Amino acid sequence: MAPTPPPAPFAGFARPEQNWFRLPNNWTDITAEITSLAELKLIEYVLKHTWGYREYDITKHITLDEFMSGRKRKDGSRIDRGTGLSKPSVIAGLKAAIEHGYLRVEVDGTDKARIKKFYRLRMDHEDAQTPQEVESPPVVMPPTPEELPPEDQTNGEGLSSFTPDVKNLYPDVKNVYRSGQESLQRSETDTLERQQQKDNKTNNNRETLPEPDSDVVVVLSQFGIAKRVAVQLARAYPADLIRQKVAYLEFLQTARPSEVKKPAAWLRRAIEDDYSAPDGFVTPAEAQQAADDEKRRKLAFVEAQQQEYTRVAAEREARAAQRAAVLDQARTRYGTTPADLELWQRALEDLRYTLNDAIFSLLADAEVLQVSDDSLTLGLFQAFKLQQLTHPGYQKAIQRSLRRLVGRELALRTELLPLPEGGP
Fold first, then answer.
1. What is the Cα Rg of the chain in Å?
2. Which residue of 18, 57, 225, 411 has the lowest C-beta tally within 10 Å?
C-alpha cells in the first residue's frame, strides 16, 4: 500500500474582513484545559455555527455526518469541511465536551426513527448536563397557576379545572395499549364532531399567526420560493432580515454567480441560518454613497480641468498682449513698413522649403523689424534662438535663400525683444 502523501503547506490566513467571528478573550485559557483534539475541534465547530452567526442562546441541529464532513445546504453541497474527524472520534469528542461542561445538547425524540440532537455552548450560569439529561428529550414544564388564564386555574380543592386535549374515552374501552387507545367503532355523529373540533383548532391557530408582509412574499416568490414557503418565512422572520439576505443574493448573482447554483435554496437557507455578509458585499446605501462620491470626484476633476484651462488661456492671452506691445514699440522705433512685412512673409514661405527644419524653426516666430538695401533686421523674443542664429553656417544658409528671393545680398541682423518678468 502506497504511503499517504503529506498534506500541502497551509496557504495562510485570509485578511479578516467579513470572514471571521469573535472568540472569548479567555479562549486560550479555556482550551489549555482541553487535552483531546477531537473535543477541541467539536467545541470550535459548534462555536462557529452559533456565535459565528451571532446566535448566542440558540441550539443548532448538527448531524454526525456534518460534524465529520461539513454542514449541508439544502442542495446537498457543503458549507465547510467540518472537523475532519472520524465518526467514532466525533461521538467520543461530543460525549467528552458535554461531560466536561463545554457543550449542552437537547434531544428531539418526537420521531423515534429520526432522533435529532441540537448543540450549543454551555453558558456560565448553567449547570453541566447529567448523562440522563443527555440521553433524554427535554422536559416541557407545565405552566404555573399565575401563567394560566382564569378559566384554567385550579379550584379550591387544589385540582386543576384545565382539561388537556384528550379525546373522548368511552366506558366500553377496557384495554389501552402503549401504541394508543383501543379502536372503537365511532358513529357518524362522533366523526363529524371530531372533525369539527380539528377544524376549529386549525382556524384558531391561523387567527393567531401574524399577517405576512405581502411585499416580502412577492420578493421571495420572484426568486423561485414557493408561495406557501414564502408566507411561512415572512411570518417567522423580520422583513429587514429577509431583505438583507435578498441583497446578499443579488450581490452574489452579480459579482460571483457561480457560487449560487440554486437561488431559491440559497436564499431560504440564508434566512433560516442568518448568513453573514459575503466577502466584498456593500449595502445599497453604501453602494449609493460610493457612487455619489465617485460622481463628485469626477465633477471636481472636470471643474479643476476647466479652471486650469481658463488659467492657461488667460496667461496665453496676456503673453500675446505683452508680445504685441513690445513688437509695436520696436517697429515704431525701426519704422517698419508694409513692404517690409510683405517681403518677410514671402521670405518665410520660400525659406520653409529651402532651409532644413532645424534652421527654419529658429525663424518661425521671428518678427521683421526693417528691410534696407543691404540688411534684414529680425526681432526675437527668445535669447537662445537669437544666439543660434548668430552661427556662421546658419547665417550663410539664410543669406543664400534671401539672395535668391530678392536678387541681392542682405546681411542678417537680430535684436532681442525683451518681455516683462515671466514672459516666454
1. 47
2. 57
Q: pLDDT tens digits for 200-227?
A: 655 555 555 668 888 889 999 999 999 8
106 beta partners: 118
Q: State which residues form the domain around 36.
A: 26-123
- Mean pLDDT across 229-239: 91
Numbers of helices and strands, H then E, in the chain: 15, 8
> pTM value?
0.34
**Where is 220: in which H helix or E strand?**
helix 214-222
Domain co-membership, 32 together with 115: yes
Structural domain contains residue 103: yes
Whether 31 is in a domain gets the answer: yes
The residue type at 128: A
- Cell reading at 113: 426513527
Question: Has residue 422 been placed in a domain?
Answer: no
Q: How many CB atoms lie within 10 A of CB 278?
A: 17
- Among candidate residues 225, 246, 273, the one where a domain is terminated: 273
Beta strands 411-416 and 375-380: pairing type?
A: parallel
Domain count, the chain: 3
As a whole number, the mean pLDDT across the chain is 80
Question: Which has the minimum average pLDDT: 63-67, 98-102, 140-144?
Answer: 140-144
Cα 382 from Cα 326, distance rounded (Å) = 13
Grid cell for residue 388: 543660434
Query: What percentage of the chain has pLDDT greater than the value 70?
Result: 78
